[in-house]
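anyone seen this seq b4? input:
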Amino acid sequence: MFKLKNKYEISYFNEIPLIDVGGTFIYSDLYELIGKDKYMTTFIFKEGSEASERYGESVTGVIYYSKEELKELDKLTDCYEKNEIKIDSPMDMEQKQREELKYGGILVPDIESISFMPYKRPEEYHDSGEKIVPNVIYIPYEGNENDDYDLLYQNLIVSKINHGTELIQYEKEKFIGITLGVNNGRIDSRILTHLGFDLEKVKSCMNIWYHLYLAKERKNTISEEEKKKLADLKFIRFVDNLKKLNNELIKSGVKSKELSEKSQPLETIILELTKFEPKILLYGKKPIYWDIESYLHIVVRHVKQLQFGNFKTKSSFPYKYKELEALIEQVLRKIEDEIERHFDERPGNDFKRVGKMSVSFNNDYYCVQISQQGRLVNIYINN
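predicted toks r here
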């Protein structure tokens, strides 16, 4: 079953698919036993070892390999042996400890035995060949006339405010606009102050007016003059987004001939520009979101069907375009505790996971950059 260099005491249990292994472990044997297939494993440490002093009698988790380490291991060279392993653990421990375990690791000789179930969830694919984002359930839903979108959104934002959750700027502007729209232009001045606005800022904010008119349109209280203003705002937003798309296309070096030949992908992006809104991808004390700049930066570089010019040489996501948002949410959720700790301790710095610290998800490695404001700057596969 296993191609091992050292000899071990291996116990199989018929009642449950559990395997216990004891002996003098080496790095490559741990890869063969549990690392290659990413089995969830309990590591029991030798009494008095450095690992036991730092993490207790045992920890449970998956061995974490960088992409570079996996390349070396896949060569199966006799000379590739290391003295430590890194463990990505879901156990309840301090986040600092969890990161030390994942990126620093423990000494292999500190391990007395391991216990694991040889189960690996297989990758799933669409008929067209793209991967399916795991752990996502799509539930069809159709709204009805009784759904009060504006009330639901107001309740959501008020709940966030009451719980001390940080709001992104767009949420504040949308909330103020909706509140003004449903209350015939009235809003408590204390709310404005709390959100960092005054009367002049409200008057000059296009997003506030846009959502004010949309709220009135949904309530059927919008006047003909306001309909014209709403149409103007929609056009301005679309043209602004179109300029940002044009900037990305210029950076790609795409030629006009290619654009004419790939009109369908371009139409897909342009359609998204008509309805795109900044959205939170990971909820927490520091919400992580993307805006139109980060969305365009990502899709024209790393969505295979939508790559243009020299961006076609960049890595692409092995998933359907419609699953992009779900994919990003899943990748971010893998490291949400690390993100939270980073912004608690270093709020003035960008969060980055690149190179050997790339995020492992569904047998791929992702590089992630998030600005100090919580905006997703970039995400791509580490080739």
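Residues 224-252 form the longest helix (29 residues). Residues 150-381 form one domain. kinda curious what u guys think
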